[in-house]
Amino acid sequence: MTEQSIGKQTREFQTETKQLLDLMIHSIYTNREIFLRELISNASDAIDKIRVQSLTNHDLLEGDPDFAITLVADEKANTLTITDNGIGMTYDEVVENIGTIAKSGTKSFLEKLKESGGAADSELIGQFGVGFYSAFMVAEKVTLITRAPGQPKGICWESTGDGTYTIEECDREKRGTSLILSLHPEFRSSENPEENFLNQYTLQRLVKKYSDYIRYPIKMAFTVKGKEGEADTQEVRTLNSMTPLWVKSKNEIKPEEYNQFYKDVFHAWDDPLEVMHTKAEGAVEYTTLLFIPAHAPFDFYQRETNTGIRLYSKNVFVMDNYQDLLPEYLRFVRGLVDSPDFSLNISRELLQHSNQLKKIGKNLEKTIFKTLEKMLEKDRDKYKKFWQEYGKAIKNGTYADFANRDKLQTLLMFPSSHSVDELTTFDEYIARMPAGQTVIYYATGKDRSSVERLPQMEILKEKGLEVLYLFDRVDEFAIDSLREYKEKKFQSISRGDLKLQELDAPKDKKDDEVADKENESLIAAVKEQLTGKVADVKISHRLKTSPVCLVSGDEGISLSMEQILSEMDNSMYKASRILELNPDHELFGVLRELHAAAPDSDNFKDYCELLYGQALLMEGLTPEDPIGFAAKVARLMTKPAK
Ligand code: ADP
What we know:
This protein is about 40% helix and about 20% strand. It is an alpha+beta fold. Helix 2 crosses helix 6 (about 200-210).
């Protein structure tokens, strides 16, 4: 080969990488041992990659098909070396993968850390999985030597974590990657065996703890003390058991084992909220082990998380993050499916058309719903935790997943006027409904106090009718798409006619009708003044102490939905506005007098505008002409007080 090799170059890390390294090296961080888990898991991922690729291109194996990860602790050189015969990296890949932080997750990690004042705690590191860079928590210098299959030369990369690294081509016979950690003195001291990462027992313990289910052997030369008079001997041991947990039967597995497995495999930092382990035989055959993480990923609701289900075939890893098994809103579920029906080198495209997989997906959905229903029934505290993290996802499901709508709606929970600290399900709401109530009332707003102060709430409070509170953007979409629950329609307290008179005594009903009649001409005049602003003006039957309120019609979008849509840059849609006047309020009397005296007077016109402005403000909307509104208020305020 006449090719010139690329000589040694010194390069700078990307700014974010520098910051991350700085934190890794300098922060007081107690759980530094997790570096081993992170690096072994990278090694295992690298082997997964070559194994899958070699199924269609056997030459990649270069005659070395025995996948393994090897640990070598060299007490003389003070180095710990982690070697894999995985996919390795080319020159460009090293620069790309190791010198820069491409992942948005790591960037967000840095932001979170800054927010927390730089205290790198184990939870954060675990949560974000900062992988490779964790090597710098324990090493003064990190040397990476790697060769991708088919490449004539290897790449040698080195850094002390000071902001720069060197990279050059070098000779490397074997395919794969070696990571040589020149350990910091405190992590190779015999005074501190627990954190002496050259100590074979420490390494053995850590592999057992964090990497037991890694499916490739993690090997290490073990020194066995010789019997009296005999020399010590060395033997190569495989430190991990490699037995996949899911093949064992349920009653043989302790809860701690599930938890540990979950943490190892899915790089989680805390125990899962729920574990689901089922086996199916018959038309479709599979084993599944699913987990509901205790916490939603930090960016779960902001972007499409690319987590999915892991696929195995008879214990052999097939694919990670397969996303089409579960509907999008259930993507918080982590886990795996092992089925003999998956072929090892099947592509994602082919899988999408697999009927077997579709059936399995449907079954997993059923398992998840059943588990949640049971949780809601038997362990409300746990369900509340679930709801806190994933409630929004379930709500999304109600309008995204028609087929499962019936199951999903029983899982919904909302705050309500019934209790300040408990959430309520629809079933619980219905159980508390007084005789004669035929609909489920709801109110939208930004929080409890703003909803409870809505003028529209007064009458419902007075009549002792429970109202569901919708604070979340998605809530109204969900309720709108459900329309009704167990034949009870959902009714916004700010929409159309609440028909509350039907719950009244006949006498009160009569009074209302009389009030409507008497004020016909006044109402027509107010409507005239507000032409183009409101669709209608009505005498209100829902107000108590407030002079006005704004509601929307039964049809079309609501005022709150209009706000959401306009925030989403979609201001095409407008709710129909209906201004309701409270005939029992003092202001109504004043309005009537003004109208009777001179219906064309500026004063009457101003009052109409001001009432409308007030109604908008109470809905959290800005009067269309805030300056004009303020001027009218000022004028009124400067009139001599009576
Ligand atoms: P992550 O593993 O979460 O992607 P890391 O910082 O640990 O993040 O690693 C960055 C990338 O470097 C990996 O995605 C992978 O492409 C590459 N890499 C790391 N370790 C190895 C290895 N042992 N063999 C091959 N590639 C590796």
